[in-house]
Structures are given as structure tokens and as C-alpha cells.
Amino acid sequence: MEDVVLKMPATDVALIMQFASRMGWIIESHRNPVARFIQACSSNNTDVLTDEEIQAEVDAVRYNK
Questions:
Q1: Integer Cα distance of 35 and 29 in angstroms
Q2: Mean pLDDT, to the nearest integer, of 49-56?
Q3: Which pLDDT band, with edges at 50, 70 and 90, does 30 fall under?
Q4: Of all helices (H) and strands (E), which one includes residue 16?
Q5: Considering the domain boundaries, does residue 4 fall inside one?
Q6: pLDDT single digits (tens) 10-20
Q7: Whole-angstrom Cα distance, residue 65 to residue 15?
Q8: pTM of the prediction?
Q9: Domain with 41 in it
Q10: Are 27 and 20 in contact, with CB atoms under 8 Å apart?
């Protein structure tokens, strides 16, 4: 699969969601991957990351820092 960022008016989102569902595509907001990353880090008790480490990872992935 390939990731694509699509910006559109909020009024069109429901139509795109229906189309994507029929095509078997997965739609997620920008917040979802970050939330999943934080959830995964906090649920792994053997290798807990600090807030700073999480932020550094987000910066590296999202902002290429």
C-alpha cells in the first residue's frame, strides 16, 4: 500500500469514506498513527519510552528531523 495525504472540505469526507470502504482502502487521520505509536509504547512495560523519546520519534517520522 502507499500512503497519500488528501485535504478536502469536511462536507466531502462522508462521500470519500463510503468510496474508500467500497474500494477496500483504509482511511486514518494524522492523529491515529501517532496515537497508536504512543499506545504501543505505553503498553510495552519492558521497554518504556520517555515523553522526550516519543516526541523525538514523532519528529523524525513526521517532520524528517
A1: 10
A2: 80
A3: low
A4: helix 13-23
A5: no
A6: 899 899 999 99
A7: 35
A8: 0.41
A9: 10-63
A10: yes
One-letter amino acid of 4? V
In a domain? residue 57: yes
Are 48 and 41 in contact by the 8 Å Cβ rule? The answer is: yes
d(CA 15, CA 20): 9
What was the pLDDT predicted at 31?
61
In the chain, how many domains are there?
1
The answer as to whether 26 is a domain residue is yes
Do the domain assignments include residue 3?
A: no
Residue 8's contacts (CB-CB under 8 Å, 6 or more residues apart) are 16
Q: Is 28 in a helix, a strand, or coil?
A: coil
